[in-house]
Design goal:
Blueprint lengths: L3 H28 L7 H26 L5 H9 L5 H25 L23 H24 L8 H16 L9 H11 L2 H6 L2 H28 L1
Helix pairs in contact: 1-2, 1-4, 2-6, 3-4, 3-9, 4-7, 5-6, 5-9
Length: about 240
């Protein structure tokens, strides 16, 4: 049996991430900044994404698990934490929620939002010398640690559940703080897909694969390792 209430929860939670996260980009870079990624802008962007994730995890974690990310749902499917039908539903509704969020931003902020393509991820930065390989590896590493925190706090039976939202949101904050100047810090295919779709920018489609391949590989590695080394052991001990 599929859980459509959980699917809707995933859409709402992903909408929140892809609305408030990119809105923090618009405000930090265009409205309050000088059009560049200043230290203050990076901190604001990190807080926008980390805060949205933390609050949505607390709001919907008991309903759907608050994956908010195909790179989280896929490892959950592989490790049999969620059924295939529900997993596909989760991913579809995550993407729907993300697209609606970016479309809303495009309607509300058609001019200033377009300057940053509504928070799009544009590939490797100049710091990486434009290396797509470096960008993919970084996205794998970033997502590995994000999914590790998720499995070891939200999934692990012995983890203190009162802090899991803060832990996951805190990890998202850290990853954006470090990753925004490098790859844009995606760790989430739905988050990267919707601005590329709504903006229609050809350059974004050329690098879109980075934000699918990297996060999915990193998420799968983390999910499988954490499950078979730590999570399964804790469940057998109960």
């Amino acid at each position: 049996m599929v859980n459509t209430r959980a699917w809707l929860a995933e859409a709402i939670a992903t909408f929140a991430l892809v609305f408030f996260g990119p809105l923090s980009v618009i405000l930090a870079v265009v409205v309050f900044g000088d059009g560049t990624l200043s230290t203050e802008a990076i901190i604001m962007i990190s807080l926008g994404h980390g805060g949205a994730i933390a609050l949505m995890v607390y709001a919907f974690g008991h309903v759907s698990g608050a994956h908010i990310n195909p790179a989280v749902t896929i490892p959950m499917m592989i490790t049999k934490r969620i059924g295939v039908k529900d997993g596909i539903g989760y991913i579809l509704f995550q993407i729907i929620g993300a697209v609606i969020a970016t479309a809303t931003l495009a309607v509300l902020f058609p001019e200033i939002g377009k300057q940053v393509l509504w928070g799009a991820h544009g590939g490797p930065s100049d710091i990486l010398g434009g290396s797509v390989i470096s960008a993919v590896v970084l996205e794998i590493i970033f997502t590995f640690f994000l999914v590790t925190v998720i499995f070891m706090t939200a999934v692990h039976k012995k983890a203190p559940k009162s802090v899991y939202g803060a832990a996951i949101g805190g990890m998202v904050f850290l990853l954006h703080l470090i990753g925004v100047p490098l790859t844009g810090a995606s760790m989430n295919p739905a988050r990267s897909f919707s601005p590329a779709l709504i903006s229609g920018d050809a350059g974004l489609w050329e690098v879109q694969w980075i934000y699918w391949i990297g996060p999915i590989i990193g998420g799968i590695i983390a999910g499988v390792l954490m499950t078979y080394i730590y999570v399964n052991k804790s469940e057998k001990e109960e």
